[in-house]
Specification:
Layout (H helix, E strand, L loop, with lengths): L5 E5 L4 E4 L1 H6 L6 E3 H5 L4 H16 L4 E7 L6 E10 L2 E8 L16 H6 L3 H4 L13 H16 L4 E6 L4 E4 L1 H7 L11 H4 L6 H13 L3 E7 L4 E10 L2 E8 L1 H22 L4 E5 L6 E4 L2 H6 L3 H6 L13 H11 L4 E8 L5 E13 L2 E10 L1 H46 L8 H22 L8 E3 L1 H18 L3 E6 L6 E3 L1 H18 L5 E8 L3 E8 L6 H5 L15 H12 L3 E6 L5 E8 L1
Parallel strand pairs: 18-20
Antiparallel strand pairs: 1-2, 1-6, 2-3, 4-5, 5-6, 7-8, 7-11, 9-10, 10-11, 12-13, 12-16, 14-15, 15-16, 17-19, 20-21, 21-23, 22-23
Helix pairs in contact: 14-15, 15-19, 16-17, 17-19
């Protein structure tokens, strides 16, 4: 056999001895190996065919036989000849199929007609609607078609098995072995219940039997215990038995279960939330979801709002409907929230806060939002505001009484002295007049606090001239304390729109407070700066300054660091700045003076 690939099979010892040609042809590493190693050098379907042919050679008393096989590495077809020598020793030779001799489809050999009836080739039972079909080929076409069929079935992405009427497994592709964890090579033509216990796979057997009896395709889901897989099984009846297709759906089942659990958790959360969760189309023509709390909040059933989403607008307070409509349109583009009043059918009025924002999911746009009942919060804020107002009124009333009581006591005392001693009346006239003026100043400050913002009378003024006027007005008072008044002003052209009287009052209060805070020989510096957007006015002194605690109390009624101050001047100044839509800020450090800055929009 020089030049011919050959080997000696010893089926008793399950060993194989190869010549070099056989070793090279099958691309094997050794010349001596086990039978199970050697047979794996052929394709999976060829292994079944070879196993059967060897069985026939030994049991039927044949001297020789042949079969067409395909190797695993090169997918080359060979004509294989086997000669039984003695006691299970068989010579095995390969010859490349140059002329493409007919190859009997697996799992049968060309030499056994009886076995062909027992287990026909694939191209006989894979037919339309499960009916048996026999396709005739010329020798060349037959071999090529069979080779393509073998490749297709072996590479089929789902498990495929063929079971005859005797419940014997006549074929299973590699994918079926992976799914079931069973080697069908070792279980060829065994009864199905010998491979899979009926008590564990009763549901499978029940559907297989039903398909055989009804001759109808059956689909069902099952579970393979050995591999821990969930599978989708399709059973097609044929004239020779059934063909079973198995698809692994484990991941799909797990994802489905995770989704179901997620939906259950979401439903549990949404159904027990006091707030109302909702999902809608961006145009609000369709609601996809709204939680059960909606009915208790708005007094409208979910069925009604699903049928007509615009029904919610009917229970919104008429004065709020326009702003609510605008806010909902903005929610389709950006995050937005709004507070508004609703009146339920039973006449109960509530405050509702709605928060909404857009989301994209799988290429589709939605709006997600939450309706929250903020009635108690609004009532609490209102109560808090009233409490603060009452506290302020009480505090201011006490302050007014205290501030006016002192000068009234002095006036009363000096009037009594003057009545008892007419000759001394003129000596106390000036003191009495000062105290009356003090009372008048307190009353004027309160009148300024109560003056409405709507009474503003805006004019075009020159900021530099305004500051110069105030400094000239307060210059005598500064000279009396030997305090230097300085004015820093960048060259600014143009005017500024404001109310001159209120602007004068701001400057007078700030400069006067600075003069009062500075000791003799000190300095007060006023500066102005005008940009295209705002006017910035600063008053800085080098007085003793304020502690951080004192700084936080600035603006509270009757808080003052002056011996005879009332604290109302700062309140009045803050009120006027607010009326002019400006901002006032204080910076101070103990021992380093104080700076007050006012910014007014242009």
């Amino acid at each position: 056999m020089n030049g011919t690939p050959a080997c000696l099979l010893d089926l008793r010892l399950q060993t194989v001895t190869l010549n070099q040609e056989m070793q090279g042809t099958l691309q094997l590493e050794k010349t001596d190996m086990s039978f199970s190693q050697w047979i794996r050098s052929f394709r999976h379907t060829a292994q079944h065919r070879l196993q059967q042919v060897l069985h026939e050679l030994l049991t039927e008393g044949l001297r020789e036989t042949s079969v067409q096989l395909t190797d695993k590495n090169n997918l080359q077809e060979y004509h294989c000849k086997m000669v039984h020598l003695t006691n299970g020793q068989i010579t095995f030779t390969l010859r490349r199929s140059v002329e493409q001799q007919p190859i009997t489809p697996e799992p049968l050999t060309l030499s056994s007609k009886e076995n062909e009836e027992k287990c026909p080739p694939l191209n006989q039972f894979i037919g339309k609607q499960g009916k048996r079909q026999t396709i005739h080929f010329s020798d060349t076409n037959h071999a090529r078609s069979n080779h393509r069929m073998t490749q297709l079935v072996d590479k089929f992405p789902h498990g495929l098995a063929i079971i005859n009427h005797n419940w014997e497994v006549t074929y299973a592709n590699p994918k079926m072995e992976d799914l079931t964890g069973v080697s069908f090579f070792d279980n060829y033509e065994r009864k199905l219940w010998d491979i899979f216990p009926i008590d564990e796979y009763y549901y499978f057997f029940q559907n297989y039997l039903r398909a055989m009896e009804t001759q109808e395709t059956i689909e069902f889901e099952g579970f393979l215990k050995k591999t821990d897989l969930a599978v989708q099984v399709t059973v097609h009846p044929t004239a020779l038995g059934i063909t079973v297709f198995v698809q692994d759906v484990t991941q799909y089942k797990r994802h489905l279960e995770a989704l179901r659990n997620s939906e259950e958790r979401f439903a549990l959360l949404a159904d027990n939330m006091k707030d109302v969760f909702w999902i809608s189309q961006p145009d609000y023509d369709e609601l996809h979801y709204i939680s059960p709390a909606f009915q208790s909040l708005f007094g409208i059933s979910r069925r009604d709002v699903f049928a007509d989403p615009t029904i919610i607008m009917k229970c919104i307070h008429e004065a709020d409907r326009e702003k609510v409509t605008a806010a909902f349109h903005q929610m389709a583009e950006q995050k937005r929230e709004i507070d508004y009043r609703v009146e339920s059918i039973d006449g109960v009025s509530k405050w509702v806060k709605t928060k909404g924002f857009p989301v994209d999911y799988n290429g589709k746009s939605y709006v997600l939002g939450i309706h929250e009942d903020v009635t108690e919060y609004k009532e609490m804020l209102e109560f808090k505001e009233k409490s603060q107002q009452l506290s302020t009124i009480t505090q201011m009333s006490a302050g007014i009484a205290h501030e006016i009581k002192n000068p009234l006591t002095a006036i009363k005392g000096f009037l009594q002295i003057g009545a008892a001693n007419p000759e001394l009346r003129d000596n106390y006239q000036e003191i009495i007049l000062d105290e009356v003026n003090r009372i008048e100043a307190i009353v004027q400050d309160f009148m300024m606090l109560s003056k409405p913002k709507s009474s503003l009378q805006l004019e075009q003024v020159d900021p530099e001239q305004l500051v110069s006027y105030v400094l000239r007005l307060l210059e005598p008072e500064a000279n009396e304390k030997q305090i230097l008044l300085l004015f820093d002003c960048e060259t600014t052209q143009g005017t500024f729109e404001t109310e001159p009287k209120r602007m004068n009052q701001i400057l007078i209060n700030l400069v006067k407070n600075a003069i009062d805070a500075v000791d003799s020989g000190g300095e007060v510096r006023v500066s102005i700066e005008m940009s295209s957007e705002e006017l910035t006015l600063s008053v800085r002194d080098n007085g003793p300054g304020l502690t951080s605690q004192e700084l936080t109390k600035i603006g509270e009624p009757f808080f003052t660091t002056k011996e005879k101050g009332t604290g109302l001047g700062v309140m009045v100044t803050k009120k006027i700045v607010a009326d002019l839509n400006g901002i006032i800020s204080y910076e101070s450090q103990k021992g380093a003076g104080t700076t007050v800055t006012v910014r007014l929009p242009k």
